[in-house]
Backbone:
């Protein structure tokens, strides 16, 4: 079946604008994760969903970041009033259950100018 | 919290064997994963260890020692396409079974 998909693949935005990143997990996967990867760095965990619930939001870098998931499927990560330090690749992953192997999407490369 | 260390960069020769080490400190350890990530691409799953010992999968093997907080990824018969970053990730019950990733080891395979 189809893997994890993310859109857009690339996004260039001006500082101060809001952006919305979308993730479509593998069908039937109950767990969904958002990570951020800055150039040459490791993966920084942001938030995960079990179904539509996000039990722990402490990984979000600031209150400008929010995420939601509806219908146990698609998730959106929203960044308000973007800053240059938000520039990174945002990766989404999904797994059958919270403790299972994670499958990653291709990522969204966000550039804030 | 969790602490995961792995070398930043390694270089090896085509056809050789390379070992990438990962040390970790965590409570509630519940498994260690290795992922491969080519430049500009998403990470892909390589291996999973939860018990001590060696797991072999083709040219790749992964070893775990829980008492030492240590794992390694062994790549045999290196090919140019193995040039990539290798990410070590630890899952911990105390962290809701979430994965915490190390910074990754960038492996360069030279002819």
Residues:
């Amino acid at each position: 079946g189809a893997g994890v998909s993310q859109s857009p693949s690339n996004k260039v935005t001006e500082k101060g604008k809001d952006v919305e990143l979308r993730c479509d997990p593998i069908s039937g996967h109950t767990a969904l994760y958002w990570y951020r990867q800055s150039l040459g760095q490791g993966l920084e965990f942001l938030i995960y969903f079990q179904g539509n619930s996000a039990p722990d939001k402490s990984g979000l870098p600031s209150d400008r970041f929010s995420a939601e998931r509806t219908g146990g499927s698609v998730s959106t990560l929203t960044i308000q009033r973007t800053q240059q330090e938000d520039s990174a690749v945002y990766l989404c992953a999904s797994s059958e259950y919270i403790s299972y192997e994670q499958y990653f999407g291709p990522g969204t490369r966000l550039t804030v100018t | 919290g969790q602490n995961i260390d792995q070398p930043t960069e390694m270089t090896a020769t085509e056809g050789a064997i390379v070992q990438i080490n990962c040390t970790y400190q965590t409570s509630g350890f519940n498994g260690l994963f290795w992922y491969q990530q080519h430049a500009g691409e998403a990470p892909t799953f390589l291996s999973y260890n939860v018990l001590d010992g060696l797991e072999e999968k083709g040219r790749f093997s992964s070893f775990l020692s829980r008492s030492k907080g240590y794992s390694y990824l062994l790549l045999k018969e290196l090919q140019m396409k193995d040039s990539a970053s290798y990410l070590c990730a630890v899952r911990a019950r105390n962290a809701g079974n979430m994965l915490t990733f190390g910074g990754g080891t960038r492996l360069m395979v030279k002819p």
Chain B has a mean pLDDT of 93. The two ends of chain B are 41 Å apart (CA to CA). The longest strand of chain B covers residues 29-37.
